[in-house]
Design brief:
AhpD-like, 9 helices
Length: 191
Amino acid sequence: MARLPDPREHLAAADVRALEQLASARADSEGRAQPADVYVRMFNNPGAAAKVGALGEHLRFHASLPDDVRELAILRFAARQRSGYEWSHHQRAAALAGIAPEVVTELTDGGLPESLPDASLAVLETVDAVCEGRSIPPDVQDRVVADHGHAGVVEVVALCGLYATMDYMVRAFDIPLEDGLPEPPDHFSET
């Protein structure tokens, strides 16, 4: 089992501030003052952690996609990749964004919730294309661009890349889910 140590006692003061800033930026959406353990462990390489954290902060809090659309994309990615860690971390953010529990359940089970507007369905279809390693169909991209612009479709793909990086870290270093977060569905751990 590959594990990374908690580097906080060895970090330079600037890196401690960077980790604290990362936690602070996410505290409201995550409902916790502590940084996610995946970020803590990433601070074994403070430069990489700060860059990944900055990308995450930009995509989650300063980009153009509405909160509900962004969280739908993240949950779809988590479900497609069976990333229980990210699924658990985004349950609160999805609820805060107004995503109905039945929509979360349908996404979790692999479905496309028909109750969603077409633009949101197009975002989910974009995530599917990325997860399948294929080009986004032109009609799907056109539907995303019509509602969210070219910046929006780029953000959807960048979100997939960001959460793939997070998922790789969690899996490669056996980072467990923190206490107090919802347990991911059992079928996420099936291979």
